[in-house]
Design brief:
The chain is an alpha/beta fold and 325 residues long. 47% of the residues lie in helices and 18% in strands. It has a 5-stranded mixed β-sheet with strand order 2-1-3-10-4, with helices on both faces. The chain has a 4-stranded mixed β-sheet with strand order 8-5-9-11. α2 (39-54) packs antiparallel against α11.
């Protein structure tokens, strides 16, 4: 009898310990508009595994992909108010919130992906990330989003003249709107999740995005003309709600920062593979890839630069980025 009581007591203690551990774990909610398996989604899952291991199970991150928690503009506001713990959002929607994000969002500011990484992996990037804290967000890392190019349902686009009159969806960002309008097309801001049906019904004629998004969104099924103007090599932001961040101990804050940085290498490797796979898939399915001379596109951007670089500090940041070799 005594042995049985001891056994019961030990089992009870073990169960209690397990329940205590389960109760101790805090699961943070992270939002992403992209589908499951997308490089940004998988990178945050990788970060979650690192965080869970290094906090001894105190924290983990549950990624809500495919826009389950809302479109990008909406989840930014939710994160600022502490409703969502983490967000992965393109830099464009932050332009009206964090002025420092304007420069990396300008058309043709980066000469290549390598230039973008060199500029943002160092002091300049740290300054831009730090600027988010004044807006109730703690930005942790930049993720690659490749080069964005125009695609449409109507015709080949080789020059700005070919864009004239086309209705093109853009991110809900003033820079994107001004860029498209400067090229002679009609910018139509709308949430990402509405683009497929809008092209299908003729509300818009096309959009602009990178290879993996063009393929995974199934936009390539409708908009068969993809023009390699590569107007934007704009990174994406991984950020936490400051309300959530302030609840972490300094030790745990450092764990989250380091895990986010390590997730960047994972995301970039997945991204590079995804770009190759996506391009091959859409070309095999009949998309027409159109080469363009970028110079006329770049020349058309002067009014955009004049407007967004009027502030001396923003222009200084632009000049520092351009000067990176």
């Amino acid at each position: 009898m005594l042995k049985n009581l001891k056994r019961v007591a030990l089992v009870a203690l073990a169960v209690g310990a397990l329940l205590s551990t389960a109760r101790a774990e805090t699961v943070l909610r992270s939002s992403d508009t992209h589908p499951d398996g997308y490089p940004t989604v998988e990178a945050v899952k990788y970060m979650s595994a690192l965080v869970k291991e290094r906090t001894n199970g105190a924290y983990s991150i549950d990624v809500f992909h495919s826009g389950q928690l809302g479109e990008e503009k909406d989840v930014i506001e939710q994160a600022q108010f502490g409703v969502i713990d983490m967000i992965r959002v393109s830099m464009g929607p932050f332009n009206n919130i964090v002025p420092e994000t304007i420069v990396p969002s300008l058309p043709y500011v980066f000469r290549s992906t390598e230039h973008m990484r060199k500029a943002l992996d160092g002091e300049i990037g740290d300054e831009i990330l730090k600027a988010f804290e004044k807006h109730n967000l703690v930005a942790l890392a930049f993720y690659d989003a490749g080069a964005r190019s125009f695609y449409n349902t109507k015709r080949e686009v080789k020059s700005p003249a070919d864009l004239k009159g086309l209705k093109l969806r853009v991110i809900q960002s003033d820079i994107f709107v001004d860029m498209v309008n400067a090229l002679g097309a009609n910018a139509t801001p709308m949430p990402y999740g509405e683009v497929y049906s809008a092209m299908q019904t003729g509300v818009i004629d096309g959009a602009e995005n990178n290879w993996p998004s063009y393929e995974s969104s199934k936009h390539a099924e409708i908009a068969k003309y993809y023009s390699l103007d590569q107007h934007l090599i704009v990174p994406e932001i991984l950020a936490m709600s400051k309300a959530t961040w302030d609840k972490l101990s300094p030790e745990h804050q450092e764990i989250f920062r380091q895990a986010a940085k390590e997730s960047v290498a994972k995301q970039r490797a997945l991204w590079e593979a995804a770009e190759k796979t996506a391009r091959a898939a859409v070309e095999a399915a009949g998309s027409k890839v159109v080469e363009v001379d970028k110079k006329p596109f770049v020349d058309a951007m002067q009014p955009v630069y004049d407007k967004y670089l009027a502030d001396a500090e923003i222009r200084a940041l632009y000049e520092r980025i351009v000067a990176v070799k």
